[in-house]
Amino acid sequence: MSTYKNFTVDTDADGIALVTWNMPDKSMNVFTVEVMDEIEAIVDATVADSTVKGVVFTSGKSSFSGGADLTMIKGMFSMLEAEKIKDPANAVQKLFDAAGRMTWLWRKIETNGKPWVSAINGTCMGGAFELSLACHGRIASNAKSVKIALPEVKVGIFPGAGGTQRVPRLANAQDALQMMTTGSSLTASRAKAMNLVHQVVEPDQLIPAAKQMIKDGLKPVAPWDEKGFKVPGGGIWTPAAAQLWPAASAILRRETAGNYPAALAILKCVYEGLQVPFDTGLRIEQRYFTQVVQTTEAFSMIRSLFVSMQELGKGARRPAGQPKTQLKHVGVVGAGFMGASIAYVTAAAGIPVTLIDRDMDAASKGKTHSEGLVAGAISKGKLTKEDGEKLLSLITPSDDYDTLSTADLVIEAVFEDRDVKKVVIEKVEAVLPEGAIFASNTSTLPITGLAGNSKRPVDFIGIHFFSPVEKMMLTEVILGKQTGDKALAVALDYVAAIKKTPIVVNDTRGFFVNRCVLRYMAESYDMLIEGVPPVMIENAAKFAGMPVGPLSLNDEVAIDLSLKILKATVADLGEKAVDPRHMELVSRLVEKEERFGRKNGKGFYDYPPKPAKKSLWPGLKDLYPQKAPEDVSMKTLQQRFLATIALEAARTVEEGIVTDPREADVGSILGFGFAPYTGGALSYIDGMGVKTFVELCEKLAATYGPHFKPTPLLREMAEKGETFYGRFDPYGQIDKAA
Ligand code: NAD
To answer: Out of 214, 252, 535, 649, which residue is the most buried by the measure of CB atoms under 10 Å away?
Structure first.
């Protein structure tokens, strides 16, 4: 029996080879070129060995597999780049061949002549599920950890190893499209209901049941390789399909505004593939995949949403030489809106939390928030009663600062008021042990200023959460002038423990995310003042790829808060720091119209009682003379939104606030949903080229104001033909630091 690095093969007395995938040095199985070579060798060996009657393929880890490996995907891009320089025509052929490697290897399994059963014991994603689909039998364990998905669309590509051909031939076109265009996860039972797995069994029955399938005479032939195979639902030329396909195109358009080439390619693969023999369908998929992989969208999304996000999550910015901290006790001071949620996510990570407020009542009220969340999770079956109780037992409400004497980290989330925060900092530091870290969740006050109240500014840092804390994946870690490496390391260890993605930025008013968000909202004020119909403003933002229109977002944030921020900016930086027309608009809404946003049911939108939906406030149109819709270019509105945010992101780089382009990109997508297909605010610029971006900004500046003027850095980069990822190469920086 050959030995493999990533697999063991044990053939039992019945001649069933159990192939167990268990990559050394990896917590999760992923596809690499070596793994695929070994799978191919296993197929050849089991075919050649006449004692082998069939194969059960499973994983030796708690999950089945996460799909493709980061390095393999990165390798595909660098291969393309290198080949493009050498010989462009050959480059695409090579990419086509590389894209087909998995496709045809899985097809080889499907047609090898011996039955294969995939035994899915845990998370089974992307290429791993496509491999399973090529097996003749699929059995999944009913363990909660089993999640099945083809999530490629989320990073700008699509299932390119047979997924688009097998899923609609097993389920039906509608369910297949839904699964692949959203990338959403299926439970084992849902996968069975969709006909994507044959059996769902208890975890300990997985392998015996898989073997039994073979013993029961599982035919080593896929349904579509049988004579007379019919596509479920009857294929494309049926009355039902005539209903489905026009609607599917329309829904895709509504959901993606044509911004996601991969999602469209899925539709094409299914529509075209179902009309031809299976192998031709695979080739169609391979061609579209080759096309999509070459798009700027795929490149940028994979870089930001797959590679960079993982790298930042794994502590790319963690200072070297700092030992990892296992947090044993975290203090949260301020049990209000944010503090209560911070306590919850901390306890959910298994860390004991003391939640402090001005009195016991307020502190206990903060814990009530967690009790509500836990009760909800239990009723939805997402949490067991015991786990829920355990989580709640980790949160101790208190009004006694002395309880913080054992804390490794204290996060303050008290009122946004310098004096209140000063008192809290002093009280906490009076009891906080030597070496423990103090973090502020302030959203507007510079960290360096707050650290002025601290006796140990080296141990003082900003950890800025976003609301709703339970849902938002991003945290912004802010370095004050004197913040030390240990504080950064502890903050990043904490963020990793609560499973969020950190970006690390230097201190500035609004930090990174809020600076960009404010530009987004300010541009919508400009548009309102110009007389652009409000509905066009909101729709243009959505067509540009923003998840929430700027007026709607402003309502969520609260318009009175916007007024507070404008006033604070004037107080700190002078009248000129704020556009007087913006001040007039926002103060009119708040002070005259009492429109504070969603919180009082009146903002840019009206919020009638449910189930009625919100609608734009009709009075908005009376504030400024309205332009005729045909005199407004939707395309220009879209460009203005993305460009103004991207420009602000570029400014933060120029000012040294953001030092790593990955953080601006990931921060902009996770923080406020910056058009994900662009790969983030800086990838938006790199994607079109800095020169083109500078030209666009100059054009916009000529009509819409000097805030669009390209910065000196951008002009210089345009002249030199540089990109952000080239000039501020995060990997180069790491190499230099090492
Ligand atoms: P909040 O008013 O809901 O909660 C503040 C809490 O602090 C209250 O429970 C109050 O009783 C308590 N508190 C006040 N003084 C205290 C003291 N001396 N000792 C102990 N507790 C005290 O406010 P919030 O919205 O949770 O905001 C808290 C902080 O988080 C602010 O700095 C804010 O800028 C920041 N922040 C808020 C958001 C948001 O969306 N609301 C987002 C990010 C950051």
So the answer is: 649
Residue 479 has what DSSP assignment?
E
Specify whether 344 is located in the same domain as 446: yes
**Are 383 and 459 in the same domain?**
yes
Looking only at the bridges linking them, the beta strands covering 7-11 and 16-21 are antiparallel
Which tokens sit at 252? 């895709």
Alpha-carbon distance 300 to 81, whole Å?
14
Mutate to test the pocket of ligand 1, among 333, 337, 399, 500 (most ligand atoms within 8 A of CB): 337
- Tens of pLDDT along 542-587? 999 999 999 999 999 999 999 999 998 999 899 999 999 999 999 9
Lowest mean pLDDT across 84-98, 355-369, 724-738: 724-738
CA-to-CA separations, 458 to 331, 430, 637, in angstroms, rounded: 19, 16, 45
Identify the residue whose C-alpha is closest to ligand 1 atom 4.
336
Name the percent of the chain lying above pLDDT 70. Answer: 99
**Residues whose beta carbon lies within 6 Å of some atom of ligand 1:** 333-339, 356-358, 362, 413-416, 420, 423-424, 441-443, 465, 467
Q: Helix and strand tally (H, E) in the chain? A: 32, 20
- Does some domain include residue 712? no
Q: What is the CATH number of the domain that holds 208?
A: 3.90.226.10
CATH code, domain with 489: 3.40.50.720
Burial of 695 (0-12, 13-18, 19+ CB in 10 A): middle
Q: Are 95 and 220 part of one and the same domain?
A: yes
Range of 94's domain?
A: 7-294
Mean pLDDT of 228-256: 94
Asked if residue 267 belongs to a domain, the reply is yes
What is the b/e burial string over 569-600, where b = at least 16 CB atoms within 10 angstroms of the residue's CB?
A: beeeeeeeebbeebbebbbebbeebebbbbee
Distance (angstroms) between ligand 1 centre and the Cα of 679 equals: 33
Separation between Cα atoms, residue 651 and residue 58, nearest integer Å: 50
End-to-end CA distance of the chain: 43
* C-alpha distance from residue 417 to each of 460, 465, 548 (Å): 17, 17, 29
Instruction: Round to whole Å and give the CA distance between 364 and 601.
Output: 28
Q: Is residue 17 classed as helix, strand or coil in its secondary structure?
A: strand
Atom of ligand 1 nearest to the CA of 557: 40
Tell me which residue has its CA closest to atom 1 in ligand 1: 336
Considering its fold, how many domains does the chain have in total? 3
Check whether residue 40 and residue 125 sit in a common domain: yes
Ligand 1 centroid to residue 414 C-alpha, Å: 3
Q: 384 and 416 share a domain?
A: yes
DSSP state of 608: P
Alpha-carbon span 607 to 599, nearest angstrom: 9
* Ligand 1: centre distance to CA 557 (Å): 15
pLDDT of residue 737: 41
E strand or H helix at 590:
none
